[in-house]
Every structure is written in C-alpha cells, then in structure tokens.
Amino acid sequence: MTAEPVLVIGAGVQGLTTAVVLAEAGWRVRVRTAERPRDTTSAVAGAMWGPAMLKPADRVLYWVTRSHAEFTALARDESTGVHLATGRMAARFDLGDAVPPEARLIPDLRPCRPDELPAGFASGYRGTVPLVDMPRYLDHLVARFQDAGGDLRLGPVNSFADAVGEASTVVNCTGIGARELVADPAVHPVRGQHVVVRNPGVDEYFIELTDSGEFAAYMPHGDRVVLGGVAVEDDWTRTPNPHVSAGIRSRCAAIEPRLGEAEVLAELVGLRPGRDSVRVGVEHFEGARIIHNYGHGGCGVALSWGCAYEAADLVAGLDPTRTSDE
Ligand SMILES: Cc1cc2nc3c(=O)[nH]c(=O)nc-3n(C[C@H](O)[C@H](O)[C@H](O)COP(=O)(O)OP(=O)(O)OC[C@H]3O[C@@H](n4cnc5c(N)ncnc54)[C@H](O)[C@@H]3O)c2cc1C
What we know:
The protein has 326 residues and is an alpha/beta fold. The protein has a domain at 5-81 and 131-186 and 275-322: Rossmann fold (3-Layer(aba) Sandwich), CATH 3.40.50. The chain is 29% helix and 30% strand. It has nine helices and 15 strands. The chain has helices spanning 13-24, 41-44, 57-74, 134-147, 160-166, 178-181, 242-255, 258-261, 300-315; strands spanning 5-9, 28-33, 82-91, 110-111, 123-132, 151-154, 169-172, 188-198, 205-208, 214-221, 224-230, 232-233, 264-274, 279-285, 288-294. The strands form two sheets. Strands 3, 4, 5, 8, 9, 10, 11, 12 and 13 form a nine-stranded mixed sheet that branches. The chain has a six-stranded mixed sheet with strand order 6-2-1-7-15-14, sandwiched between helices. Helix 1 packs parallel to helix 4 (134-147), helix 1 packs parallel to helix 9 (300-315) and helix 3 (57-74) packs across helix 9. 47% of the residues are buried. The structure holds flavin-adenine dinucleotide. Residues 9-15, 32-35, 40-42, 44-48, 156-157, 173-177, 181, 192, 194, 228, 270, 272-273, 294, 296-302 line the site of flavin-adenine dinucleotide (FAD). Its EC number is 1.4.3.3. One of its GO terms (biological process) is D-amino acid catabolic process.
C-alpha cells in the first residue's frame, strides 16, 4: 500500500468506482460524502449501460467501451446487482440504419420486426445489455472498497482548501454538487423521476429513444421494475410529483400493460449532473492536485468504469497528455 493518501469526494457511482479502482491498486483512499450512497442520484438511476451521446466524443467512446467490459464481467455474479437483459430500444420515428459506434458492443443487436414494436413506434432494435440495480450495486461497491482497505466517511467538504488540507491528491466526484464546490456554472440539474413497482413478471427492458423530456422506459431487477422517464432541464425539485408519476405509469403501461396494475413500492427523484462536456482532468490548486470526474448527465453509470480508470491514471500521473480538460 502506498503511503500517499488520496481523498475522493462523493460516494455516488463515480466516487465509489474511482475509490475501488484506486484502493484495489494499492492507494490509501478516504471517501468523504455529503449523502449516504443509497441517498445519491446514482441510487435513483434505472440503470442501463448503453450508448452515450455526450462529449468529448472520443473519450466517451473509450469510457463506455471499458465500462461495458466491466459490467459484463460483473454480471457473472448476481450478488453485484448487475445482470444481462434483453429488450428493445425503440422510437416513434424512423431511426434509419445509422447506429452509434458503441452499439457494436451489443452482441445480438438487430432491428425489431414490425410485430415487435409497440403501437405508435416506427422503428427500434433488440439487444442484450447490462442492467444495474443501483441500490444493490452501490452496496457492492462500498463493500469492495472497504475490503480493499478504504475508509468511507459521511460529511460534506465545504471547499477545496479544506480538502487539500487532508490530502495533496483529491478526486472530485460530486455530481450536481460540483456546481457549488467547483463554482462551475456549466453544471446544471436535469431532473429525473422514477416509479418503482413490484415486478408482475417482466424480464425484458424497454427504452424509448427520443429528444423529448417525457418518454417510456422500464428496467426489471428481480422482484422490482424501475419505470421512467422524464428529463427536465434546470429543475432542482427533489420531491416526487404525482402527476409526473401518473404519466410515467401510463406511458409504460401502454407498452407493457401488466405495469399499469403493479403495486407501487417507491417514487424517486434524482438530479442528473448535466454539463456540455463530461469533465475528467487535472487542476492544480494551492500546490495540490484536484482530479475532476463529474458532469456525466444521464450516462454516469454507463461511463463509470472508464472514467474511474482514467481518473486513477491521472492520480498516478500516467496520462500526461490530459493535464487540461476544458
Ligand atoms: C431518473 C434517472 C435515470 C438515470 N438512468 C441512467 C441510466 O440508465 N444509465 C446511466 O448510465 N445513467 C443514468 N442516470 C444518470 C446517473 O444517475 C448519473 O449520471 C450518475 O448517478 C452521476 O453519478 P455521480 O457519482 O457523478 O453523482 P451522484 O450520484 O450525484 O453522487 C455525487 C456524490 O457527491 C457527494 N457530494 C456532492 N457535493 C459534495 C460536497 N461538497 N462534499 C461532500 N460530498 C459531496 C454527494 O453526496 C454524492 O455522494 C440516471 C439518472 C436519473 C436521475
């Protein structure tokens, strides 16, 4: 184990994954988090690995590719909360033949036959992807981090001046909190809401491909199904809206009628950390180094392992080409 300590701020999927990579590589790591892992935005996510239409495009392609390999391996052990599921990605318009480059990672991807599309949908694809039951998965990451000797502490970090008093290498994985901690106005909330229901026997996922802020999505995780979705820019409201829940349920029930009658177990809100470009890079601050890893929008789970490995490389000084990231 190295003597040099690293402080990771944040215990969502980015903070915990980065902390696991560092701790398992032998670094002495402390995580400080304002919220318990199960209270973070990450715990609210659906969550599905899938193509991410974010910037910087070349890095995003590398991050999702690396993450796909990790999640596929994790799916061999169900206790991680990750499993492989088949389902449909469909649109109410013609998607055409062009698919994003990451889609080639989906081994059985094929266009839907017309009889496989729900009413009102014009085109879509079927394929098998990793689904992540986030509350269980975050528990898995915490256990893995602690098994590797990591130290997880609850409590906010008020400034980087405080943080660098604790360690000369700090990894900033604060999600929407980066808006305040970094004073980065580019970070903004994209509000999401989910309805979690008892699983009436659904084992396939469905996701509507659209630019609209209202869409249909459902993801089964054993005895529960997570229903979405909404994406509302610049909305900080953290309480569930019953009208939004009703809309989510009716859109999902139109595709899978059993979801319309299923018992509601929870309604959850999460603030996706929107940013024009994901930020993974180094900032020098009062003689210390801050490694930023935030701004993953609606794809933070899908990007998590790739970003974590890149942040860990930056901690180790292994990637001198990426000292600036703006
Ligand atoms: C409804 C919904 C559905 C989604 N579905 C998917 C999906 O299917 N696939 C996918 O890839 N992504 C999905 N996402 C996006 C994904 O959830 C986010 O991109 C991801 O959770 C961001 O992770 P994070 O660790 O950066 O942030 P967070 O999970 O928000 O964690 C931030 C951490 O930083 C801590 N923190 C913040 N400020 C401070 C401070 N000053 N001091 C100490 N700690 C601090 C917080 O307490 C928290 O621990 C979805 C999001 C939502 C809301």
